[in-house]
Specification:
The protein is an all-alpha fold. It is 70% helix and 0% strand. 31% of the residues are buried.
Amino acid sequence: QSFSFPLNSDEGLYAYFGTHLFEPGFIPYRDAFEQKLPGIFLLYRLTFDAFGENLFAIRMLSLINSIVAAFLIFILLKTVQKSNLWTYLLTILYIFLTNWFDTFFAVPDIFFTTILILVFLLFTYFIKKTRLNHLQGIMLGLLIGSAILIKQSAAFFIVIIPIWIYLYRRDDLKRFLPGYLIGVFIPIFVIVGIFWKLGVWFYFKESI
């Protein structure tokens, strides 16, 4: 991890959006073009609020994400297998890979991956400890929906969890699925509603 490594082109664009996100008169997708959904811009904005609008803030965002993801991976591995050696080795490997060469860039891929790791950790815990229910569905759905707002390709994972439940916990699917779908679409509908109200739905739709 290098705190002095310059921003790449994507980070520069996200930083621009993050810097201006809540400025009066600035409307994303109308005043600047970008294909990503606004979750990544909000992450940058929150990071700038915490650490200031500078390069250090962006590198801290990447480092914090790496630490959080490594912790989640460690807990997940401890949950699903008994070998402490493999747990430690795989966690160390993840930390190494996410802080080496260009993989420490603060780009959507690393953040939505961390959210998905959390989703599978919670899902594994729920499967092992209890019957799946409506509230758990909403919780996991909200996380998947948030991941989609950071990286559109996360939408692929919407179907993974229901398929998994169908294969291994079919009796729980009817209780789980309605809440799950509600959770997935809540953050998406909120963003669509905001841009609709701002009158920039056309620009938003054309961008993505």
